[in-house]
Specification:
heterodimer, A: alpha/beta, Trna Endonuclease, Chain: A, domain 1, 6-stranded mixed beta sheet, 11 helices, 53% helix, B: 323 residues, 5-stranded mixed beta sheet, 14 helices, 8% strand, disordered N terminus
Chain lengths: 285, 323
Amino acid sequence: MTAAELISGAEFLRNAAQKFFKDRYQVPTIYVGSELHRDLGWTPSLRFVVQGYIHVFVEFSEDSPYPRILRMRLPDVLHFPEPIAVYVVCPEQVALNAANQKSIADLENHGFGLVTVDQAGVAWRRFAAVPLSQVISNADYKSELQGLTPRQKERIAQAYEDYKNKPAIGVTSLTEVVEGLALQAAKEAAKKQWIEAALARGNVADALDAMFQCNSCRNARGAIGGVRGYIADHRNLSHHWPKNKKRAKQRYTECRLAFVEGIRQMRNFRTAMRNIGLSGNLPAA
Amino acid sequence: MSEKRVPGKLRQIPPQHITRNPDNPRLIFRQQEMESLLVSIDKHGIQVPLSVYEEGDGYQLIDGERRWRCALKLNLSTVPALVQEKPSPLENLLLMYNIHALREQWDYYTIASKLTRVIELFEEEYGHAPNEIELSEATGLSRGQIRRCRLLLDLPDRFKEMLLKELELPKAQQKLSEDFFIEMERSLKTITKRIPEYESSLDDIRNALVTKFRSGMIPAVTDFRQLSKIATAVDNLGIAQKSTKKTLDRIFDSKDPITIREGYQNTVEFEYDEKKAKRHVESLSDFFDEVLIDDHITELDEEFIRLLRNLHKRLGQLLRRVE
């Protein structure tokens, strides 16, 4: 197998990148110019596996922080049955160039990582790559937040930070926010004597079941059932993370869907609660 | 020059079975042009087959290194390739020169790096070293391109290595370019022709100029043209060699902060401007003769007459001070 690169300035970047990734991830093997799978239609400059189940691709780029192969192959990477994270390695000057700042922001927003190499041939990580199947773009994230209160947005943002580092923990954090919203609604319903006060202080599933059954909440049953199911399905998502590559990829995809779904459930629940005369807010801090 | 080649057989070959031709003079592949080709191949496939010949268990490229590199990046299972007969070493090189001369411009170092080999192989095959015309016909390069290549070829090995190392860096990290060395060598040739005593210290001079360029004291490679003009001022402007040499000595001293532009301004710029003005005055004077002899006075437009009156006034002031 030949290791010919697309560009001729690659050797300088390769030397720095190999050292950097070897030191950072302590990986025993870094493949140079080697395919992962024929269907991907992409031979990355380097590739290796971390944590036993995430493939990390590294692509060298000498002029641009966002090489075209990334956009060309993003759909294939997303459909690949195993999780893949992608780093770009480019010269430091390229990353410092004002004209490239929009591309760098896009790169980060799309979940790719960036490593730059300075004049002395030393590599530095600008931001980390995440498995692309877990990426929620900033645009999607912001549009999902519409209609929520500043406090709710703040709590979701905290969960989103967790999500970016560890998606399953991010989903668990968001589930806790959803639970808070549900318990506050149950507390307000108990105050109005729609449900028993003891139920509002108990576990969230019982409180939601009580609300589901009470007549005053009949017009909000869809939203109550949705939140009830969401909490049941996702509160333990971070437990038992699979080590198998294919199942790990499924779990990343589940996390992305779960996080977006959690925000939607909150929005629907808030609207439904307000329609039946409750606040639809989180408990006071 | 080279005899007709037998047309090759078209085959589908895995790109991993092909190796690059070590004699390919093209060493530098830039991202922008490679990505355009990458997109095109991804959409339409490889439309023009590569040219290869059998070598050992695999194939070696004659033509199509950019397409081959793209095929590897896109992980194509096979590429179309015409399998040619193995060419002679000279044919191999000349084929690549001629194939590429029809397409995009190569970097000069790329061309120059293999030109010596072409000359050697030509000599082996034809019993004499090729002259500039023969070399131009064989390679498809213009004589001007060959001369520029020769400036790079004549560089001491240390500077050639310096240039190659620089060209291998990503473009954003390159400082020295082929143009830098070509312009520097041209000016140093002009200088040593006029002031031969610099010949013995040429390497030190090159070092100093590289240092000044790297530190930004020579902001543009075209500044070397001013360096040449300082040296030719001895012949062209009658400036004392002692004075120009003093300036050149300072420019060639890496510790002296003087730039080429400052040296030029301090020694010869005024004289060159004066020479230029003299040519304008002579041209104006010829025009006046034409106007007077052919009686075109009534045809002169008002704006021109106004400018002449103004010039007359300025000339009066100037000449009064001269006298």
